[in-house]
Structure to design on (755 residues):
């Protein structure tokens, strides 16, 4: 039955509407299985009924009229079980519920299969047979496969309001929403404008180069033209773009001029391929390196490369990119939206961004946050092809998208938007004020930076320094290890910018998930592989060169702290400390007046949690990387859509781990910082304050929001909430407790701008 299955799936995917898809399903499944009836009942969660939505074999006038109460009859039993029910004689079953309007009394055999998505039963696909017989295994698996295919179409129709219109002809539009990831905060109202790649790079074939020099010249000219386009886009954004966000455009121009990328493409042309084929192969090779990385920020760089490649291809094809007419309040919608597509929209017209892929660390998200445009990414079941011109509301705080919202939903979000503006004004008034509780306890807020130039004015002015400076990017944009002098100049700039405030620089954290082109590491499981301190321990020359550069950069500033990543054993710390002492001694012997800085370790694997006491005995401070620690504790890859919902840094296990780390540090009088996303979450900040964490480190965009919570909360109250939270058995219960606490002090809008 593979051929009819393939044909039906293809036709369902091409359907222009849910109504058309259902009609195809009932007709073709009935024919493929040689059944006498095929019907689809869809769940109306508002009325708590199963609605007969399509049939081939029952009375057609019953469609839309027959509505069975939830959990009643065989349809209700299938939904209740969330499993197939296969009966020889339906009428003899105690759960059978006879319905006069359908004409079903003549049919005996029954097969009901639930239509399930994300553990929710969206409906039931039913086959009936006049003869009293059960359906065979092949027929059952065939129908189960089709039910799974139908689930996506139904979920999409529910979220767009199409299903509500089918189930309640003329009734109000659905209040439901599309669920995604919050990428840039805020609430946006506008009209969907669908964007798509300017050219299909993957479709380019290999062809012999007729004129090698001519192909090379064409490639260089195309690269130059695209670099000029990027300069124009950056200029168009003008003052709307912060200085550090302009660095994104500079980075793209540098990519286009990269020796490795250009030389690789030219080498392929010289080997006989035409420019377009050489470009395709080169972009694919370079993007593949980033695709294999587990670090979400670095993995997103593959999308940047592909977008650049597509734009160069347009130029090679001698096409001029035409700027379209954008609606007054444009919400860009696409499967994948590049930062340059955002930059093409006049700033005054851009209201929001929605994409079915991407993450909060994509350049699209970074740019959206930089220019203050609400965005939702990774939106599940986004019907891109049917969105053009549709009215949308984006809840950028929770990653929700409302399609053709009802009047009541719009009114509620208009109220919330007004509240949001008022709250933003209140937070702006906190600039320059100390981050201290109502009972006088000071909790310093530091900045996370390094992956991109995030030293924005707000971060420099508001932060107590840098709590985590990531050093990987300078290593990744080169075709060889940066020299000691090069690294010294780089670190000196960062240290000088924040002096006399402390700057914590993390040593190189590369590995199987973040390979360098000149230091490749290939592993089947990079999360648990050769990375971080494990690599630098095995290659001490890399580590010593970097530490020497840090120590030299700090001369006369004395604000350096060194952080060791991915620590699993005390031996790793002991070895690293010996190497740091060696680098320090070498520089002193060379006549340089360098000081020994404070050394800390990152707590990001469970083993380090259990050895916090032993680690604290060896170093001056501990820094908890809650992103990796949460993933390792819960065995959840938050970038995997199938399990991402299980990722929860308020999970009781995570809270208990933090308590254990603090206890180990306290035994030796060491300070503990939290530098993961948990630190920038206003909800989690309350618990971290109650635990006694000494400082928090976060992105610049979170500084005022967290400060607003800390300045509105006493340390005593935070400890009380922590005591209650530690008795909760789920992260959901912890979150509900904290939301209520923030509501009580008038700050619920920081974390819950909607209902």
């Amino acid at each position: 039955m593979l051929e009819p299955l393939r044909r039906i799936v293809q036709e369902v995917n091409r359907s222009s509407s849910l109504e058309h898809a259902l009609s195809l399903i009932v007709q073709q499944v009935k024919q493929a299985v040689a059944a006498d009836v095929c019907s689809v009942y869809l769940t109306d969660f508002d009325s708590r009924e199963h609605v007969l939505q399509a049939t081939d074999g029952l009375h057609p006038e019953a469609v839309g009229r027959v509505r069975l109460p939830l959990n009643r009859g065989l349809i209700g039993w299938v939904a209740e079980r969330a499993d197939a029910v296969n009966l020889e004689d339906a009428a003899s079953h105690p759960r059978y519920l006879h319905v006069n309007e359908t004409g079903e009394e003549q049919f005996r055999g029954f097969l009901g299969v639930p239509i399930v998505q994300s553990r929710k039963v969206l409906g039931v696909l039913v086959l009936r047979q006049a003869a009293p017989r059960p359906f065979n295994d092949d027929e059952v698996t065939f129908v189960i496969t089709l039910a799974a295919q139908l689930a996506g179409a139904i979920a999409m129709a529910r979220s767009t309001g199409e299903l509500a219109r089918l189930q309640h002809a003329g009734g109000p539009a659905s209040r439901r929403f599309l669920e995604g990831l919050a990428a840039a905060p805020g609430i946006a109202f506008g009209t969907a404008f669908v964007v798509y790649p300017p050219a299909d790079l993957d479709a380019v074939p290999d062809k012999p180069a007729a004129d090698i020099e001519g192909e090379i010249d064409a490639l260089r000219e195309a690269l130059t033209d695209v670099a000029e386009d990027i300069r124009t886009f950056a200029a168009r954004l003008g003052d709307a773009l912060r200085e550090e966000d302009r660095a994104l455009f500079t980075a793209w121009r540098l990519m286009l001029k990269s020796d490795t990328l250009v030389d690789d493409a030219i080498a392929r042309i010289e080997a006989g391929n035409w420019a377009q084929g050489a470009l395709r192969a080169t972009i694919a090779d370079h993007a593949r390196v980033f695709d294999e990385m587990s670090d979400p920020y670095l993995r997103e760089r593959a999308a940047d490369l592909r977008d650049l490649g597509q734009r160069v291809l347009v130029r090679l094809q001698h096409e001029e990119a035409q700027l379209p007419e954008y609606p007054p309040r444009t919400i860009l919608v696409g499967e994948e939206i590049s930062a340059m597509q955002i930059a093409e929209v006049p700033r005054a017209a851009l209201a929001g961004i929605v994409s079915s892929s991407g993450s909060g660390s994509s350049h699209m998200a970074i740019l959206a946050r930089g220019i203050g445009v609400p965005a939702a990414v990774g939106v599940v079941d986004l019907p891109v092809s049917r969105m053009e011109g549709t009215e949308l509301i984006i809840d950028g705080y929770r990653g929700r998208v409302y399609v053709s919202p009802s009047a009541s939903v719009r009114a509620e979000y208009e109220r919330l938007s007004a509240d949001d503006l008022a709250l933003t004004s209140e937070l702006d008034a906190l600039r320059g004020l100390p981050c201290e509780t109502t009972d006088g306890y000071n909790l310093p807020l530091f900045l996370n930076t390094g992956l991109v130039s995030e030293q924005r004015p707000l971060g420099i002015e508001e932060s107590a320094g840098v709590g985590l400076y990531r050093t990987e990017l300078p290593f990744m944009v080169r075709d060889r290890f940066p020299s000691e002098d090069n690294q010294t100049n780089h670190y000196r700039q960062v240290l000088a910018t924040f002096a006399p405030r402390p700057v914590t620089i993390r040593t190189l954290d590369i590995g199987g998930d973040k390979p360098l082109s000149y230091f490749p590491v290939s592993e089947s499981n990079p999360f648990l592989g050769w990375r971080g301190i494990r690599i630098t321990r095995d290659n001490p020359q890399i580590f010593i060169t970097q530490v020497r550069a840090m120590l030299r950069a700090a001369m006369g500033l004395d604000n350096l702290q060194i952080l060791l990543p991915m620590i699993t054993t005390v031996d790793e710390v002991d070895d690293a400390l010996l190497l740091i002492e060696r680098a320090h001694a070498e520089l002193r012997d060379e006549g340089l007046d360098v000081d020994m800085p404070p050394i800390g370790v990152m707590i990001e694997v469970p083993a380090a949690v259990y050895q916090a006491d032993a680690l604290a005995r060896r170093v001056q401070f501990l820094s908890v990387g809650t992103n990796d620690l949460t993933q390792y504790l819960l065995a959840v890859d938050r970038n995997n859509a199938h399990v991402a919902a299980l990722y929860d840094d308020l999970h009781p296990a995570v809270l208990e781990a933090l308590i254990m780390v603090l206890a180990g540090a306290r035994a030796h009088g060491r300070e503990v910082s939290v530098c993961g996303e948990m630190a920038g979450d206003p909800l989690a900040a309350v618990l971290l304050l109650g635990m006694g964490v000494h400082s928090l480190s976060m992105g610049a965009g979170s500084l005022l929001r967290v400060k607003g919570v800390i300045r509105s909360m006493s340390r005593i109250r935070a400890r009380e909430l922590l005591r209650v939270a530690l008795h909760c058995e789920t992260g959901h219960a912890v979150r509900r407790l904290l939301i209520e606490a923030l509501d009580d002090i008038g700050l619920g809008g920081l974390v819950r701008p909607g209902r």
In short: The chain has five domains: 2-167, 178-195+324-404, 201-316, 465-597, 602-609+616-755. The two ends are 47 Å apart (CA to CA). The CA atoms of residues 224 and 501 lie 41 Å apart.
